[in-house]
Amino acid sequence: MIYKNLILATLVALFFASCTDKYMIEGNTSQYIQDGTVAYIKQFEPSATDANFLSIDSCEILHGKFAMTGNIDSTMVVMLYLGADNFPMVLEQGHVSVSIANNVVKIAGTPLNDRLYVFLSKRDSLQFLFDDLPNRESLMYLDGYTQEEIMQELGAEELRLHGELDKLETRFVMDNFDNPLGITWFMRLCYEAQAWFGFATTTPQIDEIYSQAPVTFKSNRLVAAYMRQVEGNQYGGTEAVDEETDEP
User: Fold this and answer.
1) What is the C-alpha separation between 126 and 107, in angstroms, rounded?
2) What is the per-residue pLDDT for 168?
3) Whether the predicted model's global pTM rises above the 0.85 cut
4) In what order do the strands lie in the sheet with 85-91?
5) C-beta of residue 41 within 8 angstroms of C-beta of residue 79
6) Distances in Å between the alpha carbon of 198 and those of 43, 59, 189, 222, 245?
7) Where is mean pLDDT largest: 29-33, 40-44, 112-116, 124-128?
């Protein structure tokens, strides 16, 4: 009887262990998507020289609904592709619900997805105010404000919004130093800087984050590779740095 109990206990433990590394995604969208359209989960790995979209899972969309499930070895940030649209999400253990209605997407149900979409909601609110500045400028013209008055008021508002956005993103990365969200958003900031300046470089925001990052964050292969390129550009060693970056 003791041996039978031990075997039963072992089987139960193995069953629950096998369940702990599974993900389940269930989605529902009111947007028109033709039946049979394939939904994809793809991991996006940016680099200075290449961009690899690795397909992880897929399924057909029927009547606006789709579902995917599978095993996961490690938590990762991925993109969910639904027809012409794509959305960031975290592929992690647990049940993820995806709801899309009136051009608003909500991905929730697991800790990192909840954290990601709280952040994105705050960021979108700030971005909306920033994008609305030209409309406010036009209204101020119609209300009789001078160009100097408009520039003074809206210029100050633009600086304030930029500052709030920088603080939001910086805090988000720092709060997620220990998981893929921090790495992903940090690299987004890095590649935005690279696209703007035309070469791998940093900004005061990137420097602030990097200076406070733990060793585990700095040694991440994407972070380390980008910083090697920055250093190579500063000292004229870009070719050698690029060769090192390409190593596995």
Assistant:
1) 20
2) 97
3) no
4) 51-60, 38-46, 76-82, 85-91
5) yes
6) 25, 38, 14, 18, 18
7) 112-116
- State the DSSP H helix or E strand holding residue 55, giving kind and residue range, or none if neither: strand 51-60
Bridge partners, 27 (sequence order): 66, 98
- Which pair of tokens denotes residue 14? 């193995």
DSSP string, 132-165: THHHHHHHHHHTT--HHHHHHHHHHHHHHHHHHH
- CA 16, CA 93: separation in Å to the nearest integer? 13
Residue 241: pLDDT band with limits 50, 70, 90 = very low
Please say if the pLDDT value at position 48 is more than 70. no
* Average pLDDT of the residues of the chain: 83
Question: For the CA atoms of the chain, what is the radius of gyration?
Answer: 23
User: Which residue's entry shows tokens 């647990």?
Assistant: 94
d(CA 132, CA 165): 15
Q: Which residues contact 154 (CB under 8 A, 6 or more apart)?
A: 133, 136, 137, 140
Split at pLDDT 50, 70, 90, the class of 111 is very high
